Amino acid sequence: MSFEKETKEVNLRTYKINMEAEEYSYTTGNLGEQFFLKIKNEGKLTAAYCDKCNVRFLPVRGYCILCGNEVKNLVYIDMEGVVESFTIAKISSKGEEFGKEKIIAYIKFPNTLGGLLHELKNVKIEELKIGMKVHPVFKEMKERIGSLTDISYFEPKT
Ligand SMILES: [Zn+2]
Fold this sequence. Notes:
The chain is mainly beta. The protein has one helix at residues 30-42; strands at residues 13-18, 23-28, 46-50, 55-57, 73-76, 81-91, 97-108, 116-120, 133-138, 151-156.
């Protein structure tokens, strides 16, 4: 199973992000770098914001997903996300078996289009459900490298 996100946009750099579970790519410009710096330095999630459409969206990219105009700003988003969909992965996209099943969730955030794909932990499979509220658990500051892997995982809000 592959979670690779594709984009038709050209002339933008593509970041390959290695997640523990899977690997997928982001198309980003300067905004993407800022997105990762906010994660690294502040432990905060941001979304791209188009002031013409008044929409915020993820993954961050330099052009609005609705109108196509250049997007220059990031805005902080509420990090309490909602599980939109999930899958239980036993093998990676490279065919390697995980020792233990991993829950990979597609997580949406309030007032934000799109979402993030990440591992979900500290939830029993029988308790897993669409709509459950989750929040990110960040790595220690000194371990962060400016990547989605700076989020160790998401877990249910208690
Ligand atoms: Zn727009």
